[in-house]
Amino acid sequence: MPQIIPGRHAGKIAIVTGAGQGIGRGVALRLSQEGAHVVIAEYNADNARRAAEEVSAAGAEALAYPIDIGDPDQIRQMVADVVAHFGRIDYLINNAGVNKTQPMLTLPPEDWDKVHRVNLRGLFFCLQAVANQMIAQVPDEVKQVGRSSVSYGKIVNFSSIAGRSGRPFAADYSAAKWGVISVTQSAALALAPYNINVNAICPGVVPTPMWADIDKTQAERFGLPPGGWIEKTIESVPLKRAATPEDIAAAVSFLCSTDADYITGQALNVDGGVEMN
Q1: Which residues are catalytic?
Q2: What are the backbone dihedrals phi and psi of residue 257, each rounded to the nearest 5 degrees, phi first?
C-alpha cells in the first residue's frame, strides 16, 4: 500500500472527474486523506453521493457534483459553483472516461462519438475552464514577469497505456487517449507562463468496473472464462500484477505535490513496466 503523507495537500481544493468509482474514487480518497477538499464530479448522482460520504469520513470536506462532463455548459457552471463554494481551485484531476471494446472494422460512428465526447472533448473543455480560473488566481506581478518559483495550479489528465500504441479492439479509446497526451503537452506550454503544471497519467491494468466490462466482452469474444482476459493481460506485465486504484492515486498525489513543481508536459506510465517510453 502506497504511503499516505498527512497534510501533504492541506487545504487544497481539488476537482476529480469520474470520482464516483474506480480510479477516480481512489484518487479522491487519497487527496482527502492528505488534507485536500474534494469535488466529486461524477455522472452518476448516487455514486457521487456515496463517494463524497467516504471522502468526508476521511476528515476533508467533499462536494458531490453530478455532471455530464461532455457538456461544456455544465463544466463552466461547475467551475463557477466550486469557486462560489470554496473560493478557488488548486487541482484538476481529469479522470472521467468511458470505453467499450469492439473490433475496429465494425466500430459504429455513435460509439466513436461517445468515447471522444467524454474522454477527449470533455477532458479538454474541463481543462480549459479550470485553467482560466487558475490563471485568474495568479497574482498580477507573476503574470507580468511570466515566471515564478511557486506553482499556481496542478492539472493531471488521464491518458492510458492505450494512448501509447494502437488497439485493434479499442481504436476509438486509443485515439482519444493519444489525444489526451497531445492536449497535455499543449496545455503545459500554454500555462507555463503562469507556472500551472499540466501532466498526464497512463495507467495499465487496474481492476475497476470499466475493466470488468472489458474482461466480460473480451473473454466471451475469445472463449475465455470470466476473469480470463484480465489474467491474460496481467501475464504481459513485468511486475506480474495489476495496479490498484491506490497505486494510481499515489502517482497523482505526487504530481499534485510541491515535489513535482518542476515537472510539466509529461505522461507518466503507471503500468508495472508494460510501456517504457
Answers
A1: 173
A2: -85, 170
